[in-house]
Design a protein that fits this description.
alpha+beta, Translation Initiation Factor IF3, four-stranded mixed β-sheet, 38% helix
């Protein structure tokens, strides 16, 4: 499933959900990365977040650093971000 597309991530049910709404930097990113590091390779985490800098910059940056495919959908004042943990 390497190279997961945005559509595949959004259609797939997440293996776990992390709700960090109401939290500000650096906590959404710290909690998200900690959770993903504990998850098995190939699983998908859905993050519910309402802090724009974390949703638009910090979490995508972490995904790029680890080469984790992700898809983000803005829903009102919050985002739903799905990340698939890849091999490392």
């Amino acid at each position: 499933m390497e190279g997961t597309s945005r559509e595949e991530l959004l259609e797939r049910e997440p293996d776990d959900i992390l709700d960090v709404r109401g939290e500000t930097c650096p906590f959404p990113a710290l909690h998200s990365q900690k959770k993903l590091m504990r998850m098995p390779v190939g699983t998908v985490l859905e993050i519910l977040i309402d802090h724009p800098p974390s949703a638009e910059e910090t979490i995508p940056g972490i995904c790029a650093q680890h080469n984790w495919p992700y898809a983000s959908v803005k829903e009102g004042d919050s985002w739903r971000i799905r990340i698939r943990k890849t091999g490392r």
